[in-house]
Model the fold of this input.
Amino acid sequence: MAIFAQLDVNNLVTDLIVVADAEAVNEQSGINFCQSFCGGGDFVQTFQDASKRRKYASVGDYYDYATDAFYRGDITQNNTTPSRYINLPNNTSYCITFRSASSTFTGLIATTYFGKENGNNQSVVNLIGVPITSTPVGTPYAIIRDPVDRFVSSYALQTGGVPCWLPVDQFIAWLVQQDKTKLNPHFMPQVNLVGIPAPSNIVYFDFAKDLTLMAVALGLPTPLPSVNVTDTTKKPTLTADQIATLQNFYADDVALYKQVSAS
Done:
């Protein structure tokens, strides 16, 4: 059997049509069957194992012809818990700064302190069952990354909840119009993830050179594994104007990273 996503005029998935293999020898024959059965319309094949087109389509997803991929259609920015800490038994606390080795650290924390067997996943998976709070206990630690570098990594990740199908120039134009306090955490400024004001005793580490020091401070095993590494082929090359726009949008992060990287 083959499954086809029916699209409306805005390229949003409105239905999933199951087609017998005999009617879908290839994608075009399956599309022809769907159009005949439904009296016309636009259809794109989707795959339950997500082997093609990024994800298995769901009703409400957006299909982008340019990237030939499905994306979560809901891009409402309503993040109500920007500051996220994991308090650890050794009187330390880890601040989850997404796209700053967060998959590596949440995985190690989940296996070291919370008994999970497999921590080599994305942060959202690693964090299932792990208690998270907005209030750190003991000494809080956070990794801070160059904000433009972090943006490039987040954009290349093509995470859900943002219009990541847009070309990077259009995505940046969308980004800078958003409320920083409600953004998807992959694009939210790091100062917001840490908390405003930041905890008075927080200790920062530089993503570029201090990951092992951070692990030691949290009582985690080293050497560190590489988890959820960015696909370099998906990283955009930014123009000088785009970099300047991002540095302006992330001005507080630029100032914080300058302080952290100098120490």
Observations:
- Residues 2-71 form one domain.
